[in-house]
Amino acid sequence: MTNRFCGLLAMLLMTTPALAVTDPAVTSAQAAQQADINTQVTLHGYLIKTLGDQHYLFRDPSGELQVEIDNALWRDINVKGDTPLTLKGKVANTRFGPEVEIDSLQLAG
Q1: Whose CA is closest to 48, among 62, 38, 58, 33?
Q2: Where are the transmembrane segments (predicted)?
Q3: Residue 51: closest CA among 82, 96, 105, 87
Q4: Are 87 and 67 in contact (CB under 8 A)?
């Protein structure tokens, strides 16, 4: 019985395609607002307003979105409202609506 089960399991594993979970490419504020929680996001745009406590208002051609940037990520980067940035992170849900928790930020160039 055990050999039969192992044979059946091996056959199923060989004929079943691998399941991979991939997030769609989310690259705009508008798409991020509609994306599922934990979806990976890469944004290109500007921080236009400080909202306090590591929260900022981000803008790109598609619209605006709240982002959270940990103080440790700044690494002496000075940003003004017209400084283009690339932000990478994941979508989160807050009591104020969707936001992106930023994992990395860099000057776009």
Answers
A1: 58
A2: none
A3: 96
A4: yes
Residue whose token pair is 């290109």:
44
Token pair recorded at residue 93: 């849900």
Closest CA to 46 of 31, 62, 33: 62
Per-residue pLDDT of the chain (109 residues), as tens digits, is 455 544 544 554 455 444 444 445 899 999 999 999 999 999 999 999 999 999 999 999 999 999 999 999 998 888 998 999 999 999 999 888 899 999 999 999 7
Structural fold of domain 21-107: OB fold (Dihydrolipoamide Acetyltransferase, E2P) (2.40.50)
Spatial separation of the C-alpha atoms in residues 80 and 1, rounded to whole Å: 70
